[in-house]
Design brief:
Layout lengths: L11 H38 L2 H11 L33 H8 L5 H13 L5 H11 L16 H25 L5 H15 L7 H16 L13 H20 L11 H6 L1 H4 L3 E11 L3 E4 L5 E11 L7 E6 L13 E16 L2 E15 L14 H17 L12 H20 L7 H5 L2 H12 L1 H8 L5 E2 L13 E19 L12 E10 L12 E5 L4 H5 L5 E12 L17 E8 L22 H8 L6 H6 L11 H12 L8 H7 L6 H13 L14 E15 L3 H7 L3 E18 L8 E13 L4 H4 L25 E20 L2 H7 L5 E13 L10 H30 L10
Parallel strand pairs: 4-6, 10-12, 15-17
Antiparallel strand pairs: 1-3, 1-5, 2-3, 3-4, 5-6, 7-8, 8-9, 8-11, 9-10, 11-12, 13-14, 13-16, 14-15, 16-17
Helix pairs in contact: 1-26, 4-7, 4-8, 5-8, 6-7, 13-15, 13-16, 20-23
C-alpha cells in the first residue's frame, strides 16, 4: 500500500491547518478579555446613570424634559400667571350674577362685605323668620305641614321683616361705635345701616338686594347637616339649590364653558363639604344608575322636579356621588347608564343612605351643567369653541380665583359682654382678695386661701373671655362690691397682660378641704421679673409673684428657669399706683398676678429688652429656639404631645394655624441645596421622629424629662402623591393663619432600611411598611414648581380643540408624583381614614401619619449619605467583587477546557 502524501507547510492546505490551530489556541483568552471589558463598561454605565445631574443634561439635550423657564429673581413661593392680564376681559364686562351664583361671592367689594355682615346678623334667625325672608327675597315658600301653623299673612310678614330690620340696625349701631372711624369698613357699616332703612321697598338700591340674597343663601345652607338622610328642615335649602342650579344652567348654555368651573377631588369633596357648601365645582365620572324623577312640593301649588343620578368617579376611590339634576338642566341627549359625564354642580351635603353593605355616605351635587363625552369619531368642527365665550369663561375663572383670596369679615370686638361675665363670677371673692396684703402672707397660705384659689379657678375657667378683654393691649378694672361689715381695700383688681422673664418656679401642694369641688392637687408660684411696655428703659423695682394653675412641663423638671413669658390674668394693683388707667399697660407692675394663661413666647416689641435665646434655661433645641424667637407659644407643645394619634380637632386650631402663619412672616427662605442640607443637619429624620413619639406614648406620665418631638426640626425625603388646597372659612382661624387657605400634600417618606408594623387589634394582622411610611406635609404657600397642576396640562396635540381646566389656579386637588427634600417643624402624629386601612380593619382602623409643617423645599437630587446606611454600601461593593471573581473563575475554567490539547490520532500507513 502506498504511503499517504504529507502536506507541506507552504502548501494551501498546510497554511489553512496552521491558521486553524492558532485560532483555536487563542479563543479562550480572547473570550475572557471580552468578558472583563464588558463587565467594566457595565459598571461605568451604572455609575454614570446614578448621577442625576448627568441624566438631566442628557434628557434635556434629547428633549425628554422641557428647558427651565423659572426666573431667578422671582421668589420660590410665588405663583406665575399663565395668562396675560391684558388678554382677559375685566369683570365689569361680565355678568356679576354669574359670579355670585357660582361661588357665593361678589365681584363688588362693598356688596361682598355687606353680605358677610348680614350673614353674621342672620345667624340667630328663627325658622319662621328665615322662611319669611326666603319668601320675600327668593320667592320660595315651603308648603306648611298639616299640624303646623298656617303661613303668616302679608301684614304679619311685613311686621316680622320690620322687627328683624330694627334688630339688625341696633346691632349695626353698636358695631359702628366699636369700630375705628378711620377704617374704610366703618363707612361701609354706616352705609349698610342706612340702606336697610329703605328695604324692602321697591325703591331700595340693587346693592342691598344682592347683598341680602348672598347672605340669605349662606344662612339657608347652614340648615344642611352632613352624614344624615334628607330632613324636613332641609326642604327650603334643597328648593333654593334647585332654583339656583336652574337659573345658572342658562348661563352655561349662553355665556360660559363648563371648564371655567374649578374641579374637585373625591377626598376633598368628602372632607370639605361644610366649608364648600353651595359653591359650584366640577367632577367627572360614569353613570351607574338613573333613578325615576322626583319632586318637591312648595306653597301655592308650585312643584320642583328633579332626577337623581349615581356617578362613579374616574379615580380609585370607589366612592359613589349623588347628582340631583333639576328639570331645567339638560344634556346634549338623553342620558343612559354607562355614559361618561362631566358635571358642574352646587355642593349640597353628605347624604346617608342604605345599601346592601349597610349605611353609607355619598356627597350630593345639584347639577347646573352636564357635558357628555363626544364619540371618538366626532368631527373637529363640533369641538370648536367660540372665542368670545371662551374669553368670558377665562374672566369668570380668574375672578373666582381672586375672590377666594379675600379674608372673611369679623365684627368689632365687643369686650363688654365677657367683662360682665368675669365680673359676675369673681364678685364674691374680690373684696377678700383685695383687703389682704399678698406680700405679708406665706406662699403656702396664699395658695391655700379660699379667695385666691377660687379667683384663680374662675379665671382659668373663663380664660377665653379674659383673652378677649385684654386683647390688643387693653386692660379693664373690676369693681369691688362693698362688704358687710365693710373692709378696707389696699388693692384694685385689674385685668391685663404682663411681659417678663420667669426666674423661679415653686410647686405648692393644695389642701383638698380648701375647695372641695376642685380637683387640683398642685399650683405653682412663679417669680416674674417684669418688663414695662410703657417705659422699656425703666428697671423694675422688684419681682412679681404669679400664681398659676399650670406651667410647661419642661419648667417643672428643671432646677433653674430663665424663660420669657406673656401672662394674662388678674393683677392686684396698689391703690397708690392707680393714678390713671388707660388702654395701655401700666408702668408700675402689680404686687401679685393670678394667671389665667401663661404663654411661653417672645413678642416682637420686647425682643430687645428680653434675654437672648442662647441664654435661656433650660436649654432649648434648635427648632424650639427658632419658634420662640419668632413669637410662637411653646407652652402649646405639652397639649400637642398628649394628642399624638388623634384626629385633628378644634383644639388644634390655634397652634396649627399660628405655626403655619410663621411661613408667611418670613421664618425662612428657600436656599440652595448645599445650604438646605447643612442648615438642619442636627434635625431629626422621619424614623427618629416616629421612634421618639412611640417612646413617649409608652411612658406613663410626662414629668418634663421626656424628649419632645413637637416643634423639632425634621428633614425628610418625600414622594408627593397628592396635593390639595384646604379652604379655611372660620374668621378667627383666618386671623391666626393670616389667610384663608393652606396646602396639604400627602405622600410617603423615606425611612431607610427600616420596617414599621402598625397593629390595629389582636385579631387583625398588622400592616407593614418597609423603607417608606405615609406622611402629611402642610404649608401656607408652595413654590411655583410644586404648585403647578400637572392635570391641567393637556396631553393632546396642538391641533386638538379639547380644552382642559380653564381655572387651573382654582383646582382643589390633584395627583402628582414628585420626589422632594423638605425641612420643617414637626407638628404631631395624626390619624385619618383611608380605603386601604378601612378594608383591612373592617372600617374600625385609621391611618396614622406624621404631620410636618414645611418651610424649605428642594427637588431631590439623587441619593445622599443619609438615604443609605454605611453597611448597605459595603454589601454593594462586596457583591460587585464577588461577581467579578465568579466571572473570572468561569472564564479561567473555560480557557482551560478550550486550551487542552486534543488526543493524538493514529495514522495508518
Amino acid at each position: 500500500m502506498a504511503p499517504k502524501r504529507r502536506e507541506r507547510w507552504y502548501s494551501l492546505e498546510g497554511q489553512r491547518q496552521i491558521h486553524q490551530a492558532a485560532l483555536q489556541s487563542n479563543t479562550g483568552p480572547r473570550r475572557l478579555i471580552s468578558l472583563i471589558v464588558l463587565l467594566i463598561l457595565v459598571l461605568m454605565m451604572i455609575q454614570q446613570v446614578s448621577d442625576s445631574r448627568k441624566v438631566a443634561k442628557v434628557a434635556l439635550a434629547v428633549g425628554l424634559i422641557p428647558p427651565p423657564t423659572a426666573n431667578p429673581a422671582q421668589p420660590a413661593d410665588s405663583t406665575q400667571s399663565t395668562q396675560d392680564p391684558t388678554q382677559v376681559p375685566s369683570v365689569a364686562e361680565s355678568d356679576a350674577q354669574i359670579i355670585e351664583s357660582l361661588g357665593l361671592v361678589s365681584s363688588d367689594a362693598k356688596i361682598q362685605r355687606w353680605s358677610e355682615i348680614l350673614a353674621i346678623l342672620m345667624k340667630d334667625l328663627s325658622g319662621q323668620d328665615k322662611a319669611t325672608l326666603a319668601g320675600k327675597i327668593f320667592d320660595i315658600a315651603d308648603q306648611p305641614k298639616k299640624s303646623a301653623e298656617p303661613l303668616p299673612l302679608p301684614d304679619d310678614s311685613e311686621s316680622i321683616l320690620a322687627n328683624q330690620i330694627a334688630s339688625w340696625q341696633k346691632t349695626l349701631l353698636r358695631w359702628i361705635d366699636l369700630s375705628d372711624s378711620q377704617n374704610p369698613e366703618h363707612r361701609w357699616i354706616e352705609e349698610l345701616q342706612v340702606a336697610l332703612e329703605s328695604w324692602p321697598n321697591p325703591q331700595s338700591p340693587e346693592s342691598i338686594q344682592r347683598s341680602l340674597r348672598l347672605a340669605l343663601d349662606r344662612s339657608v345652607l347652614g340648615d344642611l347637616t352632613d352624614n344624615t338622610p334628607w330632613k324636613t328642615t332641609e326642604r327650603l335649602s334643597l328648593a333654593r339649590l334647585l332654583v339656583r342650579a336652574t337659573q345658572l344652567a342658562g348661563q352655561f348654555q349662553d355665556a360660559i364653558y363648563i371648564e371655567a368651573v374649578p374641579s374637585i377631588a373625591i377626598p376633598q369633596l368628602l372632607s370639605q363639604t361644610d366649608t364648600l357648601r353651595g359653591r359650584c365645582y366640577r367632577i367627572r365620572g360614569t353613570i351607574g344608575l338613573i333613578e325615576p324623577t322626583s319632586s318637591i312640593e312648595l306653597a301655592n301649588a308650585r312643584k320642583l322636579n328633579y332626577s337623581v343620578l349615581w356617578l362613579r368617579p374616574d379615580d380609585l376611590s370607589d366612592q359613589p356621588i349623588n347628582i340631583y339634576v333639576p328639570q331645567g338642566v339638560l344634556a346634549d341627549r338623553e342620558l343612559i347608564v354607562g355614559d361618561t359625564l362631566e358635571v358642574a354642580g352646587l355642593i349640597a351635603k353628605r347624604r346617608a343612605y342604605a345599601s346592601k353593605r349597610g349605611g353609607e355616605i355619598a356627597p350630593v351635587l345639584i347639577a347646573t351643567c352636564l357635558s357628555i363625552d363626544p364619540p371618538p369619531n366626532a368631527p373637529k368642527s363640533s369641538l370648536q369653541k367660540d372665542s368670545n365665550r371662551l374669553a368670558q369663561s377665562l374672566a369668570l375663572a380668574k375672578e373666582l380665583s381672586n375672590r377666594r383670596e379675600q379674608p372673611a369679615w369679623t365684627p368689632p370686638v365687643d369686650r363688654q359682654a365677657p367683662l360682665d361675665l368675669i365680673q359676675q363670677s369673681l364678685a364674691k371673692h374680690l373684696q377678700d382678695l383685695t383687703s389682704n396684703d399678698p406680700r405679708s402672707l406665706d406662699r403656702n397660705e396664699l395658695a391655700n386661701s379660699t379667695p385666691s384659689l377660687a379667683t384663680l379657678a374662675n379665671l382659668v375657667k373663663f380664660q377665653n373671655e379674659v383673652e378677649t378683654v385684654v386683647s390688643g393691649g387693653n386692660s379693664a378694672m373690676l369693681q369691688v362690691a362693698p362688704a358687710d361689715p365693710p373692709k378696707v381695700s389696699s388693692y384694685t383688681p385689674l385685668l391685663g397682660t404682663w411681659l417678663g422673664v420667669v426666674v423661679g418656679v415653686q410647686a405648692i401642694q393644695l389642701n383638698p378641704e380648701t375647695l372641695p369641688g376642685l380637683d387640683w392637687r398642685t399650683v405653682y408660684f412663679l417669680e416674674l421679673k417684669p418688663q414695662s411696655l410703657g417705659n422699656p428703659q425703666s428697671e423694675p423695682k422688684s419681682n412679681i409673684r404669679v400664681l398659676a394653675q399650670e406651667i410647661p412641663a419642661l419648667w417643672r423638671a428643671a432646677s433653674q428657669v430663665h424663660q420669657p413669658v406673656r401672662i394674662e390674668g388678674l393683677g392686684l394693683m396698689p391703690l397708690s399706683d392707680l393714678k390713671s388707667v388707660g388702654k395701655s399697660h401700666l408702668s408700675d407692675p402689680p404686687s401679685m398676678i393670678l394667671a389665667s394663661k401663661i404663654a411661653w413666647q417672645f413678642l416682637a416689641n420686647s425682643a430687645q429688652t428680653l434675654p437672648p435665646v442662647n441664654d435661656l434655661v433650660p436649654e432649648l433645641s434648635p427648632g424650639q429656639q427658632r419658634l420662640l424667637r419668632h413669637g410662637w407659644d411653646l407652652s402649646q407643645t405639652d397639649k400637642l404631645e398628649r394628642m399624638h394619634g388623634q384626629s385633628l380637632t378644634s383644639k388644634d386650631a390655634k397652634p396649627f394655624y399660628t405655626l403655619l402663619a410663621l411661613q408667611k412672616t418670613g421664618l425662612s427662605l428657600n436656599q440652595p441645596h448645599e445650604a438646605f442640607v447643612e442648615k438642619d443637619s442636627s434635625g431629626l429624620t422621619v424614623m427618629d421622629w416616629i421612634r421618639r413619639t412611640e417612646a413617649n406614648k409608652q411612658s406613663k406620665g410626662d414629668d418634663g424629662t421626656l424628649k419632645r418631638s413637637v416643634g423639632e426640626r425634621v428633614t425628610a425625603r418625600v414622594q408627593v402623591r397628592r396635593i390639595q388646597r384646604v379652604e379655611v372659612q372660620n374668621a378667627a382661624h383666618q386671623n391666626w393663619l393670616n389667610g384663608n387657605h393652606y396646602y396639604q400634600l400627602d405622600g410617603v417618606a423615606d425611612i431607610g432600611q427600616n420596617r414599621i408594623d402598625v397593629r390595629y387589634g389582636k385579631d387583625l394582622e398588622p400592616i407593614s411598611y418597609e423603607k417608606e411610611f405615609p406622611i402629611t406635609l402642610v404649608a401656607a404657600t408652595l413654590p411655583t414648581w410644586i404648585l403647578a397642576d400637572p392635570t391641567t396640562q393637556s396631553s393632546k396635540s396642538e391641533d386638538s380643540q379639547e380644552t382642559s381646566d380653564l381655572d387651573a389656579s382654582s383646582t382643589i386637588a390633584w395627583s402628582t408624583k414628585i420626589r422632594v427634600d423638605v425641612q420643617g417643624f414637626a407638628y404631631r402624629i395624626w390619624r385619618f381614614q383611608t380605603p386601604q386601612v378601612s378594608a383591612v380593619t373592617q372600617d374600625k382602623g385609621y391611618q396614622q401619619a406624621p404631620m410636618l409643617v414645611v418651610d424649605r423645599w428642594q427637588l431631590s437630587r439623587g441619593p445622599t449619605a443619609s438615604d443609605q446606611p454605611t453597611r448597605k454600601t459595603d454589601v454593594s461593593v462586596g457583591s460587585v467583587l464577588t461577581t467579578i471573581l465568579g466571572l473570572s473563575a468561569i472564564g479561567w475554567f473555560a480557557y482551560r477546557m478550550i486550551s487542552q490539547p486534543r488526543k493524538p490520532t493514529i495514522k495508518r500507513k
